[in-house]
Write a structure and sequence with these properties.
Elements: E1 5-8, H1 13-24, E2 29-33, H2 41-46, E3 54-56, E4 61-62, H3 65-75, H4 86-107, H5 117-134, H6 147-160, H7 164-168, H8 173-183, H9 186-191, E5 206-207
Parallel strand pairs: 1-2
Antiparallel strand pairs: 1-3, 2-5, 3-4
């Protein structure tokens, strides 16, 4: 049986959240690990944007991480990730928009010499404060994770690890606890397995 092909990169937060949804939905894909500084030609021919994740289906290509999550969960959603209020999608949009913008200008400051790192860290923290208020329960919308949790957590993790000591001093204890539980979870460990760079002649790697 031919499975969809997922082009991925282990540390990319967009790819992480795609793999989280594929894993929880129990959808088998052929995983191809891409090295971003040396992208495989077949990947570049497949992905319209040249970015990961990219899911090649028999009839189309999904080149956006949220589309891949939606595809997987539409096929199987055993943990009810899609059962969340509209506010969840608003939080995801804030994560992918203003928060990611500020995150990049904090983490990759040398790429943005005209940007104020401290100001961008403050802008990112505004989103963390909002999440902290929402996390009066274990997860954003109750006792169990929903799509918003799993779509946002990889980006919070990326931001936190710019300087974890600074993150811990940011007065967002609920976010810290939420992130620590995520990092200690079995699902996170499973999506963070290390794979060799994909080569055309390499054996097929199934995920999960």
């Amino acid at each position: 049986m031919d499975h969809p092909i997922l082009y991925s990169f282990r540390r990319c937060p967009y790819a992480i959240r795609a793999r989280l949804a594929i894993l929880v939905a129990d959808q088998t894909v052929n995983l191809r690990e891409i090295v971003l500084r040396d992208k495989a030609e077949e990947f570049l021919k497949t992905s319209p944007s040249g970015t990961v994740p990219c899911l090649k289906l028999p009839d189309r290509v999904l080149d956006e991480s949220l589309d891949i999550m939606a595809w997987a969960l539409a096929r199987n959603d055993p943990e009810n990730w899609l059962q969340m209020p509209p506010e969840g999608y608003q939080l995801i949009a804030e994560c992918d928009g203003p928060f990611k913008h500020a995150l990049d200008r904090t983490k990759y400051a040398s790429r943005y010499p005209d940007q104020d790192v401290g100001l961008n860290r403050s802008k990112a923290n505004e989103f963390l404060f909002k999440l902290n208020s929402q996390l009066s329960r274990p997860y954003l919308f109750g006792a169990s994770p929903r799509l918003a949790d799993m779509a946002i957590l990889p980006f919070v993790r990326q931001f936190a690890h710019i300087d974890y000591d600074v993150f811990l001093q940011s007065d967002v204890p609920n976010v810290v606890d939420w992130l620590e539980r995520f990092k200690a979870s079995t699902i996170f460990a499973r999506v963070m397995n290390k794979y060799k760079k994909w080569e055309p002649e390499a054996p097929v790697v199934h995920f999960p």
